[in-house]
Amino acid sequence: MTGRILVSFLVVATVLAGLGTYYFQVYAFYDELPAQNSVRLTPLGAAAAQDFAVANFRGIDSDSSPIRYRACFDIEIDAAQLTPYTRATPLNAPGWFECFDAGVLTDALRDGRAQAVMGVSNISYGIDRVVLLMDGRGYAWQQINPCGEAHFDGDPVPQGCPPPPERRD
Fold first, then answer.
1. Which of 48, 75, 85, 157 sits CB 3.0–4.6 Å from 116 for a disulfide?
2. Could you tell me which InterPro entries the record lists for this protein (predicted)?
């Protein structure tokens, strides 16, 4: 009888731990962002990002990681006016954030139905905000750039990168 109680306790504890982990990964650390009427994009040849008008903005973000930002919005702009982003890799969003589907965005990018442009370079060190434009809609996320990849791995940063911040050990 004692063995059944112990096994039952372990099974219940394991299920609860699994449910807790799922909840914290998918729901707990995300905050919905307030509505915005503009996003920052980098025009072709410009040194810095500028504000561009948007409508129907929906966004989420988290303080737990610099790459958890996701946003969807309506925007009327010609991608040819903006700085292209060649390394774009749409990152998955939680399933409850329905407007952002990384698989669909990746397919559209690969098929040429969408264009990725620079939102803000180094929005925090080693992290770029990328915007994908498709059919009057914009989809934004943040991803690690080559400077960040090297810095976060502890390697020297490539030529042309801004100086990395001091490491806190």
1. 85
2. DUF6446
- Average the pLDDT over 83-97 and give the result: 94
For 158, the token pair is: 């490539």
Share of the chain above pLDDT 90, in %: 69
> CA-based Rg of the chain, rounded to a whole angstrom?
20
CA-to-CA distance for 152 and 62, rounded, in angstroms? 19
Q: 55 forms bridges with which residues in the sheet?
A: 74
Residue 54: which of 133, 109, 115 has the closest Cα? 133
What would the mean pLDDT of 17-31 be, rounded to a whole number? 69
Cα distance between residue 140 and residue 129, in whole Å: 7
H-run or E-run covering 129: strand 127-134
Task: Mark whether 41 and 74 lie in a shared domain.
Answer: yes
Residues 110 and 38 in one domain: yes
| CA distance linking residue 25 with residue 49, whole number of Å | 31
In a domain, 169, yes or no: no
pLDDT, position 2:
81
Note the Cα 15 to chain centre separation in Å: 30
**Domain-located, residue 162:** no
pLDDT at 9: 76
Decide if pLDDT at 23 tops 70: no
Whether residue 117 contacts residue 42, with contact meaning beta carbons closer than 8 Å, is answered with yes
